[in-house]
Design brief:
- EF-1 is composed of 4 subunits: alpha, beta (alpha subunit of the eEF1B subcomplex), delta (beta subunit of the eEF1B subcomplex), and gamma (gamma subunit of the eEF1B subcomplex). Interacts with elongation factor EEF1A1.
- One of its GO terms (molecular function) is translation elongation factor activity.
- Keywords: Elongation factor, Protein biosynthesis.
- The protein is α+β, with helices and mostly antiparallel strands.
- Among the domains are: about 70 residues, no CATH class; about 90 residues, Alpha-Beta Plaits (2-Layer Sandwich).
- Helices cover about 35% and strands about 20% of the residues.
- It contains seven helices and four strands.
- The chain has a four-stranded antiparallel sheet, with helices on one face.
- A hairpin with a 2-residue loop joins strand 2 and strand 3.
- Helix 1 crosses helix 3.
Length: about 230
């Protein structure tokens, strides 16, 4: 088994005939078998050896990633058609016993390698998905400053604030507050809250706050900042 001397015209002719009905040295994808044979060739095959030249140019495109190609690189004499002497290592012509030994696949078939690669890929994807699932999701939040205005200067602002803070919703946390003069003895309640964007919006806050119509004349958003 082998191609003979791949630096000679006769060896390249054997390679060309071998590749007349194949895309690769072994299997159906580029592998270390192609790398081993490619590295044994000193120059591109001549144009009249079209199959070998086509294969050579194709494998050359994998030069930057050749180390990552599948398979295990074997001695050059273990590739190619049977009955060709392996002149690359000074070995004698192939005997019947050698041919029998070649029938023993020491490195597994391409199908076994493909199955192993698929299994490893699936294991890595499963591990990544499990890691992703354990990672807590980022909750989008906003800090909102509200201006709550009373009807007049006789409105009980302590009661107004009590009403506002009585609003409890999932995703809503009330913060600091203060009374701000607006003129004519009237003060507005300025109160901060932090909300989860997916659960609480300014529309529902305005709806809830203005329901206390005995105290609240209107509500405005003074500031809105993403956290």
């Amino acid at each position: 088994m082998g191609f003979g001397d791949l630096k000679s015209a006769s060896g390249l002719k054997v390679l060309n005939d071998f590749l007349s009905d194949r895309s690769y040295i072994e299997g159906y994808v580029p592998s270390q078998a192609d790398v081993a044979v490619f590295e044994a060739i000193s120059a591109p095959p001549p144009a009249d050896l079209c199959h070998a030249l086509r294969w050579y140019n194709h494998i050359r495109s994998y030069q930057s990633e050749k180390s990552s190609l599948p398979g295990v690189k074997k001695p050059l004499g273990q590739y190619g058609p049977p009955g060709v002497a392996d002149t690359t290592s000074g070995s004698a012509p192939t005997t019947a016993k050698d041919e029998d030994d070649d029938d023993i696949d020491l490195f597994g078939s391409d199908e076994e390698e493909d199955a192993e690669a698929t299994r490893l890929k699936e294991e890595r994807l499963a591990a990544y998905a499990a890691k992703k699932a354990k990672k807590p999701a980022v909750i989008a939040k906003s800090s909102i400053l509200l201006d709550v205005k009373p009807w007049d200067d006789e409105t009980d602002m302590a009661k107004l604030e009590e009403c506002v803070r009585s609003i409890q919703m999932d995703g809503l946390v009330w913060g600091q507050s203060k009374l701000v003069p607006v003129g004519y003895g009237i003060k507005k309640l300025q109160i901060n809250c932090v909300v989860e964007d997916d659960k609480v919006g300014t529309d529902i806050l305005e709806e809830k706050i203005t329901e206390f119509e005995d105290f609240v004349q209107s509500m405005d958003v003074a500031a809105f900042n993403k956290i």
